[in-house]
Amino acid sequence: MKRHTWCTWVLSAMLLSGCGAQRDPLTQSEPAVPAAEMMQLDVQGKDADAGFSVSQYRFALELMRAVQREKRQQNVMVSPYSVVQALAMTANGAANQTRTEMENVLGNGISINDLNQYLYTWRTNQPTDDSCQLHTANGIWINETIPQIKPLFAEQTRNFYAAGMKRAAFDKQTLREINQFVKKETDDMIPEILEELDPAAVTVLVNAVGFDAKWLEPYPSDKIKDGKFNNADGSESTVQMMTGSESDYLKSEGAVGFLRYYDGPYAFAGILPPEDVTLQEWLDAQTPESLIAMIAGREECAVSATMPAFSGDTEVQLETLLPGMGMPTAFSAAADFSCLADGAMQISEVIHKTHIDVDAQGTKAAAATAVVMTRGADEVPKQEQTVRLDRPFVYMILDMHNELPVFIGTVNQL
Fold first, then answer.
1. Model-level pTM?
2. The domain spanning residue 240 has which CATH number?
3. Confidence check: pLDDT of 70 > 80
4. Most exposed: 22, 93, 269, 389, by fewest CB within 10 Å?
5. Longest dimension (CA), the chain
Protein backbone atom coordinates (compact mmCIF):
# COMPACT_ATOMS: atom_id res chain seq x y z
CA MET A 1 0.00 0.00 0.00
CA LYS A 2 1.31 3.42 -0.93
CA ARG A 3 2.06 5.48 2.19
CA HIS A 4 3.53 8.84 3.03
CA THR A 5 6.67 9.02 5.11
CA TRP A 6 6.06 10.17 8.69
CA CYS A 7 8.06 12.47 8.23
CA THR A 8 -8.55 37.50 18.62
CA TRP A 9 -10.68 41.68 19.63
CA VAL A 10 -9.18 37.66 19.88
CA LEU A 11 -10.55 35.69 16.98
CA SER A 12 -9.04 32.53 15.52
CA ALA A 13 -10.49 30.68 12.57
CA MET A 14 -9.20 27.29 11.47
CA LEU A 15 -10.42 25.57 8.35
CA LEU A 16 -9.97 22.26 6.62
CA SER A 17 -11.24 23.36 3.22
CA GLY A 18 -10.04 25.99 0.71
CA CYS A 19 -6.39 27.05 1.15
CA GLY A 20 -3.65 29.31 -0.11
CA ALA A 21 -0.44 31.06 0.81
CA GLN A 22 0.06 32.97 4.04
CA ARG A 23 -0.79 36.63 3.70
CA ASP A 24 -1.54 39.81 5.60
CA PRO A 25 -5.36 39.96 5.44
CA LEU A 26 -5.70 43.56 6.65
CA THR A 27 -5.09 46.96 5.18
CA GLN A 28 -4.00 49.39 7.85
CA SER A 29 -5.95 52.60 7.63
CA GLU A 30 -4.00 54.03 10.54
CA PRO A 31 -0.89 52.56 12.20
CA ALA A 32 -1.70 51.11 15.62
CA VAL A 33 1.92 51.75 16.59
CA PRO A 34 3.91 54.70 15.21
CA ALA A 35 6.55 53.55 12.76
CA ALA A 36 9.29 55.23 14.78
CA GLU A 37 8.44 53.01 17.75
CA MET A 38 8.30 49.71 15.89
CA MET A 39 10.94 47.19 16.89
CA GLN A 40 12.91 44.71 14.82
CA LEU A 41 12.85 41.29 16.47
CA ASP A 42 15.17 38.41 15.67
CA VAL A 43 12.56 35.81 14.71
CA GLN A 44 13.66 32.24 15.25
CA GLY A 45 11.56 29.12 15.44
CA LYS A 46 11.76 25.94 17.47
CA ASP A 47 11.05 22.48 16.14
CA ALA A 48 8.49 20.42 18.06
CA ASP A 49 10.17 18.37 20.77
CA ALA A 50 8.90 16.05 23.50
CA GLY A 51 8.07 18.89 25.89
CA PHE A 52 6.07 20.83 23.30
CA SER A 53 4.26 17.71 22.08
CA VAL A 54 3.22 16.77 25.61
CA SER A 55 1.99 20.33 26.22
CA GLN A 56 -0.21 20.31 23.10
CA TYR A 57 -1.68 16.85 23.76
CA ARG A 58 -2.31 17.93 27.36
CA PHE A 59 -4.20 21.04 26.24
CA ALA A 60 -6.12 19.07 23.60
CA LEU A 61 -7.23 16.50 26.17
CA GLU A 62 -8.21 19.03 28.83
CA LEU A 63 -10.15 21.14 26.34
CA MET A 64 -11.89 18.12 24.86
CA ARG A 65 -12.82 16.72 28.29
CA ALA A 66 -14.29 20.03 29.41
CA VAL A 67 -16.34 20.55 26.24
CA GLN A 68 -17.56 16.93 26.12
CA ARG A 69 -18.60 17.13 29.77
CA GLU A 70 -20.66 20.24 28.99
CA LYS A 71 -22.17 18.79 25.82
CA ARG A 72 -22.81 15.34 27.39
CA GLN A 73 -23.84 12.84 24.69
CA GLN A 74 -23.66 15.29 21.80
CA ASN A 75 -21.10 14.98 19.01
CA VAL A 76 -18.23 17.37 19.74
CA MET A 77 -15.21 18.65 17.85
CA VAL A 78 -12.69 21.27 18.95
CA SER A 79 -9.50 22.60 17.43
CA PRO A 80 -6.87 22.90 20.16
CA TYR A 81 -4.51 24.36 17.58
CA SER A 82 -6.94 27.18 16.79
CA VAL A 83 -7.57 27.98 20.47
CA VAL A 84 -3.85 27.88 21.33
CA GLN A 85 -2.98 30.18 18.43
CA ALA A 86 -5.62 32.70 19.49
CA LEU A 87 -4.79 32.64 23.19
CA ALA A 88 -1.02 32.59 22.63
CA MET A 89 -1.30 35.82 20.68
CA THR A 90 -3.31 37.23 23.59
CA ALA A 91 -0.75 35.98 26.11
CA ASN A 92 1.88 38.17 24.47
CA GLY A 93 -0.03 41.09 25.98
CA ALA A 94 -0.25 39.54 29.44
CA ALA A 95 2.04 40.07 32.44
CA ASN A 96 2.70 38.66 35.90
CA GLN A 97 0.19 36.10 37.21
CA THR A 98 -2.05 36.44 34.16
CA ARG A 99 0.81 35.46 31.87
CA THR A 100 2.01 32.64 34.14
CA GLU A 101 -1.44 31.03 34.21
CA MET A 102 -1.79 31.31 30.44
CA GLU A 103 1.66 29.79 29.93
CA ASN A 104 0.74 26.88 32.22
CA VAL A 105 -2.54 26.17 30.40
CA LEU A 106 -1.35 26.71 26.82
CA GLY A 107 2.18 25.32 27.05
CA ASN A 108 2.35 23.31 30.27
CA GLY A 109 4.72 25.93 31.69
CA ILE A 110 6.56 26.78 28.45
CA SER A 111 7.28 30.51 28.43
CA ILE A 112 5.32 32.60 25.95
CA ASN A 113 8.59 33.57 24.25
CA ASP A 114 9.40 29.92 23.62
CA LEU A 115 5.79 29.11 22.75
CA ASN A 116 5.89 31.85 20.10
CA GLN A 117 8.84 30.07 18.52
CA TYR A 118 7.26 26.62 18.60
CA LEU A 119 4.01 27.91 17.12
CA TYR A 120 5.91 29.92 14.49
CA THR A 121 7.67 26.79 13.25
CA TRP A 122 4.51 24.69 13.39
CA ARG A 123 2.60 27.32 11.38
CA THR A 124 5.25 28.06 8.76
CA ASN A 125 6.49 24.49 8.21
CA GLN A 126 3.17 22.91 7.35
CA PRO A 127 3.47 21.71 3.73
CA THR A 128 0.76 22.24 1.15
CA ASP A 129 0.08 20.83 -2.30
CA ASP A 130 -2.84 20.38 -4.70
CA SER A 131 -4.41 17.47 -2.81
CA CYS A 132 -3.63 18.60 0.73
CA GLN A 133 -3.69 22.37 1.02
CA LEU A 134 -3.12 24.49 4.09
CA HIS A 135 -3.06 28.22 4.71
CA THR A 136 -2.85 30.56 7.68
CA ALA A 137 -3.97 34.19 7.92
CA ASN A 138 -3.88 36.37 11.05
CA GLY A 139 -5.18 39.83 11.83
CA ILE A 140 -5.67 42.13 14.81
CA TRP A 141 -8.35 44.79 15.16
CA ILE A 142 -7.76 47.56 17.71
CA ASN A 143 -10.52 49.82 19.02
CA GLU A 144 -9.66 53.32 17.81
CA THR A 145 -10.35 54.63 21.33
CA ILE A 146 -7.18 52.86 22.55
CA PRO A 147 -4.40 55.48 22.43
CA GLN A 148 -1.57 53.10 21.57
CA ILE A 149 -0.63 49.44 21.47
CA LYS A 150 2.68 48.47 23.06
CA PRO A 151 5.34 48.16 20.33
CA LEU A 152 6.70 44.83 21.58
CA PHE A 153 3.25 43.23 21.50
CA ALA A 154 2.68 44.53 17.97
CA GLU A 155 6.04 43.15 16.81
CA GLN A 156 5.63 39.77 18.48
CA THR A 157 2.25 39.16 16.90
CA ARG A 158 3.42 40.49 13.54
CA ASN A 159 6.65 38.49 13.42
CA PHE A 160 5.63 35.20 15.01
CA TYR A 161 2.01 35.09 13.83
CA ALA A 162 2.16 37.22 10.65
CA ALA A 163 -0.71 39.26 12.06
CA GLY A 164 -1.73 42.44 10.31
CA MET A 165 -3.06 45.16 12.61
CA LYS A 166 -5.86 47.66 12.02
CA ARG A 167 -7.46 50.42 14.11
CA ALA A 168 -11.23 50.56 13.75
CA ALA A 169 -14.39 51.93 15.29
CA PHE A 170 -15.99 48.95 17.00
CA ASP A 171 -19.31 49.47 15.22
CA LYS A 172 -21.53 47.47 12.88
CA GLN A 173 -19.07 47.87 10.03
CA THR A 174 -16.26 46.39 12.11
CA LEU A 175 -18.54 43.51 13.11
CA ARG A 176 -19.23 42.86 9.43
CA GLU A 177 -15.48 42.90 8.69
CA ILE A 178 -14.80 40.29 11.38
CA ASN A 179 -17.55 37.99 10.22
CA GLN A 180 -16.64 38.45 6.55
CA PHE A 181 -13.03 37.57 7.37
CA VAL A 182 -14.09 34.36 9.12
CA LYS A 183 -16.59 33.47 6.40
CA LYS A 184 -13.98 33.90 3.68
CA GLU A 185 -11.16 32.12 5.47
CA THR A 186 -13.36 29.14 6.35
CA ASP A 187 -14.72 28.85 2.82
CA ASP A 188 -18.22 29.80 4.06
CA MET A 189 -18.36 26.89 6.52
CA ILE A 190 -18.49 29.28 9.48
CA PRO A 191 -20.46 32.25 8.12
CA GLU A 192 -20.53 34.17 11.41
CA ILE A 193 -18.48 34.07 14.61
CA LEU A 194 -19.86 37.11 16.45
CA GLU A 195 -23.51 38.11 16.65
CA GLU A 196 -22.60 41.50 18.08
CA LEU A 197 -19.52 43.50 18.99
CA ASP A 198 -19.41 45.26 22.32
CA PRO A 199 -18.38 48.91 21.72
CA ALA A 200 -16.44 48.61 24.99
CA ALA A 201 -14.28 45.81 23.55
CA VAL A 202 -10.70 46.94 23.17
CA THR A 203 -9.09 44.39 20.86
CA VAL A 204 -9.89 41.26 18.80
CA LEU A 205 -7.12 39.10 17.30
CA VAL A 206 -7.86 36.80 14.37
CA ASN A 207 -6.05 33.63 13.26
CA ALA A 208 -7.43 31.76 10.24
CA VAL A 209 -6.08 28.42 9.09
CA GLY A 210 -7.33 26.47 6.09
CA PHE A 211 -6.92 22.81 5.16
CA ASP A 212 -8.60 20.64 2.53
CA ALA A 213 -7.37 17.04 2.32
CA LYS A 214 -8.30 14.17 0.05
CA TRP A 215 -7.80 10.61 1.20
CA LEU A 216 -4.65 8.96 -0.10
CA GLU A 217 -6.97 6.17 -1.24
CA PRO A 218 -10.61 7.29 -1.60
CA TYR A 219 -13.28 4.77 -0.68
CA PRO A 220 -14.52 2.89 -3.79
CA SER A 221 -18.29 2.80 -4.29
CA ASP A 222 -18.51 -0.92 -3.58
CA LYS A 223 -17.05 -0.30 -0.11
CA ILE A 224 -19.78 2.20 0.84
CA LYS A 225 -22.94 0.60 2.22
CA ASP A 226 -25.76 1.42 4.61
CA GLY A 227 -25.10 0.12 8.10
CA LYS A 228 -26.13 0.49 11.72
CA PHE A 229 -24.58 2.91 14.20
CA ASN A 230 -25.30 2.31 17.88
CA ASN A 231 -25.90 5.70 19.49
CA ALA A 232 -24.81 6.64 23.01
CA ASP A 233 -28.49 6.89 24.11
CA GLY A 234 -29.13 3.25 23.16
CA SER A 235 -30.91 3.93 19.86
CA GLU A 236 -29.78 2.81 16.40
CA SER A 237 -29.31 4.88 13.24
CA THR A 238 -28.92 3.76 9.64
CA VAL A 239 -25.91 5.57 8.19
CA GLN A 240 -23.49 5.34 5.29
CA MET A 241 -20.57 3.13 6.39
CA MET A 242 -17.25 3.15 4.53
CA THR A 243 -14.75 0.28 4.69
CA GLY A 244 -11.10 0.52 3.74
CA SER A 245 -7.89 -1.48 4.04
CA GLU A 246 -5.51 0.43 6.30
CA SER A 247 -1.97 -0.35 7.40
CA ASP A 248 -1.59 1.14 10.91
CA TYR A 249 -3.35 -0.42 13.89
CA LEU A 250 -3.76 1.39 17.22
CA LYS A 251 -4.29 -0.26 20.58
CA SER A 252 -4.06 0.80 24.22
CA GLU A 253 -5.62 -0.76 27.32
CA GLY A 254 -8.64 -2.19 25.55
CA ALA A 255 -9.10 0.64 23.06
CA VAL A 256 -8.42 -0.12 19.39
CA GLY A 257 -8.19 2.07 16.32
CA PHE A 258 -6.49 2.85 13.04
CA LEU A 259 -4.85 5.60 11.05
CA ARG A 260 -6.22 6.55 7.66
CA TYR A 261 -3.91 8.75 5.63
CA TYR A 262 -4.69 11.85 3.63
CA ASP A 263 -2.75 12.58 0.44
CA GLY A 264 -0.21 14.59 2.42
CA PRO A 265 1.36 14.58 5.88
CA TYR A 266 -1.93 14.33 7.76
CA ALA A 267 -3.92 11.39 9.06
CA PHE A 268 -7.31 10.60 10.56
CA ALA A 269 -7.10 8.58 13.76
CA GLY A 270 -10.25 6.63 14.64
CA ILE A 271 -10.23 5.31 18.22
CA LEU A 272 -12.84 2.92 19.63
CA PRO A 273 -12.86 2.70 23.47
CA PRO A 274 -13.74 -0.58 25.21
CA GLU A 275 -17.44 -1.38 24.84
CA ASP A 276 -18.26 -0.88 28.54
CA VAL A 277 -16.51 2.52 28.74
CA THR A 278 -18.20 5.80 27.76
CA LEU A 279 -16.33 8.37 25.69
CA GLN A 280 -16.20 10.71 28.69
CA GLU A 281 -14.77 7.97 30.90
CA TRP A 282 -12.17 7.11 28.27
CA LEU A 283 -11.15 10.74 27.75
CA ASP A 284 -10.90 11.29 31.52
CA ALA A 285 -8.57 8.29 31.84
CA GLN A 286 -6.12 9.45 29.17
CA THR A 287 -2.88 11.35 29.65
CA PRO A 288 -0.84 13.20 27.01
CA GLU A 289 1.73 10.43 27.28
CA SER A 290 -0.84 7.68 26.71
CA LEU A 291 -2.15 9.32 23.52
CA ILE A 292 1.35 9.99 22.24
CA ALA A 293 2.32 6.37 22.98
CA MET A 294 -0.77 5.07 21.16
CA ILE A 295 0.10 7.02 18.01
CA ALA A 296 3.85 6.41 18.18
CA GLY A 297 3.33 2.71 18.96
CA ARG A 298 1.11 2.07 15.95
CA GLU A 299 1.45 -1.48 14.66
CA GLU A 300 2.00 -1.98 10.96
CA CYS A 301 -0.41 -4.65 9.76
CA ALA A 302 -3.47 -5.04 7.59
CA VAL A 303 -6.56 -3.44 9.13
CA SER A 304 -10.08 -3.74 7.80
CA ALA A 305 -11.46 -0.43 9.09
CA THR A 306 -15.08 0.69 8.85
CA MET A 307 -16.24 4.19 9.72
CA PRO A 308 -19.35 6.27 9.08
CA ALA A 309 -19.53 9.28 6.81
CA PHE A 310 -20.48 12.14 9.11
CA SER A 311 -20.69 15.88 9.45
CA GLY A 312 -21.42 18.23 12.31
CA ASP A 313 -21.08 21.59 14.00
CA THR A 314 -20.01 22.50 17.53
CA GLU A 315 -20.36 25.84 19.33
CA VAL A 316 -19.14 26.42 22.87
CA GLN A 317 -18.44 29.41 25.14
CA LEU A 318 -14.94 28.71 26.48
CA GLU A 319 -14.93 31.57 29.01
CA THR A 320 -16.95 29.25 31.25
CA LEU A 321 -14.40 26.44 30.91
CA LEU A 322 -10.92 28.01 30.67
CA PRO A 323 -10.87 29.37 34.25
CA GLY A 324 -11.38 25.83 35.52
CA MET A 325 -8.52 24.65 33.33
CA GLY A 326 -6.12 26.93 35.21
CA MET A 327 -6.31 30.48 33.89
CA PRO A 328 -8.96 32.34 35.94
CA THR A 329 -7.08 35.63 36.29
CA ALA A 330 -7.36 36.58 32.60
CA PHE A 331 -11.16 36.68 33.01
CA SER A 332 -11.18 38.70 36.25
CA ALA A 333 -10.72 42.30 37.32
CA ALA A 334 -7.22 41.26 38.44
CA ALA A 335 -6.18 40.53 34.83
CA ASP A 336 -2.92 42.13 33.76
CA PHE A 337 -2.61 42.81 30.03
CA SER A 338 -0.23 45.74 30.49
CA CYS A 339 2.07 44.34 27.78
CA LEU A 340 -0.70 44.91 25.23
CA ALA A 341 -1.75 48.46 26.11
CA ASP A 342 -2.06 50.78 29.09
CA GLY A 343 -5.25 50.61 31.12
CA ALA A 344 -7.23 47.80 32.72
CA MET A 345 -8.61 45.11 30.43
CA GLN A 346 -9.71 41.49 30.67
CA ILE A 347 -11.07 38.68 28.50
CA SER A 348 -14.87 38.69 28.52
CA GLU A 349 -15.76 36.01 25.96
CA VAL A 350 -14.11 33.09 24.18
CA ILE A 351 -16.39 31.72 21.46
CA HIS A 352 -15.32 28.53 19.66
CA LYS A 353 -17.12 27.13 16.61
CA THR A 354 -16.20 24.13 14.45
CA HIS A 355 -17.57 22.31 11.41
CA ILE A 356 -16.53 18.98 9.87
CA ASP A 357 -17.47 16.89 6.83
CA VAL A 358 -15.99 13.38 6.41
CA ASP A 359 -16.95 11.48 3.27
CA ALA A 360 -15.63 9.01 0.71
CA GLN A 361 -13.28 11.57 -0.85
CA GLY A 362 -11.68 13.20 2.19
CA THR A 363 -12.24 15.73 4.95
CA LYS A 364 -13.20 19.38 5.15
CA ALA A 365 -13.44 21.12 8.50
CA ALA A 366 -13.37 24.58 9.97
CA ALA A 367 -12.88 26.16 13.37
CA ALA A 368 -13.12 29.71 14.63
CA THR A 369 -12.18 31.03 18.06
CA ALA A 370 -13.22 34.51 19.14
CA VAL A 371 -11.64 35.94 22.28
CA VAL A 372 -13.21 39.29 23.06
CA MET A 373 -11.33 41.57 25.41
CA THR A 374 -13.00 44.44 27.23
CA ARG A 375 -11.59 47.10 29.56
CA GLY A 376 -11.56 46.74 33.26
CA ALA A 377 12.47 -2.19 7.90
CA ASP A 378 9.78 -4.53 6.29
CA GLU A 379 8.23 -6.82 8.86
CA VAL A 380 6.60 -10.23 8.50
CA PRO A 381 2.92 -9.71 7.61
CA LYS A 382 0.68 -9.99 10.65
CA GLN A 383 -2.87 -11.20 11.02
CA GLU A 384 -5.43 -8.72 9.73
CA GLN A 385 -7.16 -6.69 12.43
CA THR A 386 -10.71 -5.37 12.26
CA VAL A 387 -11.97 -2.06 13.66
CA ARG A 388 -15.59 -1.06 13.16
CA LEU A 389 -16.61 2.39 14.33
CA ASP A 390 -20.27 1.48 14.70
CA ARG A 391 -20.71 2.87 18.22
CA PRO A 392 -19.48 6.05 19.97
CA PHE A 393 -15.85 6.78 19.09
CA VAL A 394 -13.11 9.39 19.41
CA TYR A 395 -11.24 10.81 16.43
CA MET A 396 -8.30 13.11 15.82
CA ILE A 397 -6.91 14.83 12.73
CA LEU A 398 -3.16 14.71 13.14
CA ASP A 399 -0.36 16.76 11.65
CA MET A 400 1.89 13.79 10.97
CA HIS A 401 4.90 15.96 10.12
CA ASN A 402 5.01 16.98 13.79
CA GLU A 403 2.73 14.22 15.15
CA LEU A 404 0.49 16.84 16.81
CA PRO A 405 -3.30 17.06 17.06
CA VAL A 406 -5.02 19.73 14.95
CA PHE A 407 -8.59 18.61 15.69
CA ILE A 408 -10.03 16.18 18.23
CA GLY A 409 -13.66 15.10 18.37
CA THR A 410 -16.24 12.51 19.36
CA VAL A 411 -19.16 10.88 17.61
CA ASN A 412 -21.82 9.86 20.15
CA GLN A 413 -24.80 9.61 17.84
CA LEU A 414 -25.66 9.82 14.15
1. 0.89
2. 2.30.39.10
3. yes
4. 22
5. 68
